[in-house]
Amino acid sequence: MRLLEGLRTRVKDVDVERGQVIVRGGKGDEDRVTVLPVSLQEKLRAHRERLRRLHAEDRAKGLPGVWLPEGIERKWPHAGEQWEWQWVFPSAELSVDPETKVRRRGRATLRLIADRRWQIPDWG
Questions:
Q1: Residues 6 or more apart in contact with residue 7 via CB below 8 angstroms
Q2: For residues 31 and 22, what is the distance between their CA atoms, to the nearest angstrom?
Q3: pLDDT given for residue 81 in this prediction
Q4: How many CA atoms lie within 13 A of 43 on its CB side?
Q5: What was the pLDDT predicted at 43?
Q6: What is the model's pTM?
Q7: Are strands 90-96 and 103-107 parallel, antiparallel or unpaired?
Q8: Distance (Å, rounded) from C-alpha 35 to C-alpha 16?
Q9: Sequence-ordered alpha helix ranges (H) in the chain
Q10: Mean pLDDT, consecutive 10-residue segments, the chain of 124 residues?
Q11: Which of 26, 94, 100, 114 has the fewest beta carbons closer than 10 A?
């Protein structure tokens, strides 16, 4: 899995029980399934619990959901508020969507990771 593909991963795309991650829109804009190593499964479960708390806090504050592709947003306008559509690696800070001007939680960026602003667990 490429780093940027990992950053674009949503909760619904990770199946810890089966040890799989669905990579969407990867190289050639193709979806594929890759392996989630056993060594990461427990750490990812703990990470998801932290994400659940963050999602609950965002919902309690009335924040809009995460960004969704236009077709999905049009078909299911509230899907971005649902747990399964949240980013596995969300941004620590809110940002303004340049298209809609809506302030929401985006996904972590390469810059955020480089700056170590987001406390990513030691996966090793």
A1: 87, 89, 107, 108, 109, 110, 113
A2: 7
A3: 96
A4: 10
A5: 92
A6: 0.83
A7: antiparallel
A8: 10
A9: 3-7, 38-60, 70-75, 110-115
A10: 89 95 85 94 94 96 91 92 96 88 89 59 54
A11: 114
